[in-house]
Amino acid sequence: MQAAYIDKFGPSSEIKIGELPRPQIMNDEILIKTIATSVNYVDTFVRSSSFKTKVDFPLVIGRDAVGKVVETNDNEFKPGELVWTNSMGYDGRAGTTSEYVAVPCERLFHLDKSLDPIKVVASLHSSATAAILLNDVLNVQADQSLLVEGAGGHVGQKLVTLAKDLDLKVSTTSNSNDFSTLQALGVENTYDYHQDVSDITERFDYLIDTSGKIKLTDNVDLLNVFGKIGLITTPPDALTPEKIAQLYTHSQALMGFVISHATVDQLQDAAHLITTAFSQGKLLDDDVLTLPFNQAEKAHRLLENHENAGKKIILKF
């Protein structure tokens, strides 16, 4: 089968296109024929070894994919069915940028045939990140308040959509050009991200900065008692002893999360949330740049150089 793979860690130039053996499935695996896979920053981190994880070389790159079932050892999946996965290509598992992928049954999920595979695969990484962050890491409760900073981006809009589905009161910071989109998603208060967050008078039960540009010391001041900050990027500053004291005296918490450490249970719970949203036409509005899979090196280079114009990069078979 044709695949995009690496024989060693390194820059995008290490990515090769060539023949690899078609996988032979184990009892707990399903063989799928890949339709499309997405390229995310974490894929570049695995390829370059800046994210440390167990791999076997040659390593097929990529973690997310939509495809069709070819062979199955599980009665829940039938040949020809449309499916998706979002946790391959790390922790000892082969990736998805190949014609065929052997996916563990517990990491494979059904997809309604009426949905566009390209739109779905573009959404998977950011949607699953948002779902697990809200549902499992922050353990959000209905009717409480959430501030999403940088809400106009891929993860930000997914957080807003799922937070409203979980009955949260949502406020955002973003470019003013995104206000109408966010208000249509149900945001109650939209703040221009050029405004200093210290000028915001609201206080929140949960706060997530998707941009990594807001000082943590400023965000701590926006929390209610028992408030939580979800960290998915590195903030530009460190907490002072005074702010650390403020955290524990107000029973507040910083909760870090990266989806590569998500458990199977978390991934399955997230799959339920996002497939329900997909069926309602939600989470499927990313702008995409589609390339043939044999341009995987170019896709990684575009992403690392920030030359993708804010679009999700999709590799199509």
Automatic annotation (TrEMBL):
GO terms for molecular function: oxidoreductase activity. Keywords: NADP. It comes from the Bacteria. InterPro entries: ADH-like_N, ER, GroES-like_sf, NAD(P)-bd_dom_sf, Zinc-ADH_QOR/CCCR. Pfam families: ADH_N, ADH_zinc_N_2. SUPFAM superfamilies: GroES-like, NAD(P)-binding Rossmann-fold domains. Residues 10-314 form the Enoyl reductase (ER) domain. This is Oxidoreductase. It comes from Companilactobacillus versmoldensis DSM 14857 = KCTC 3814.
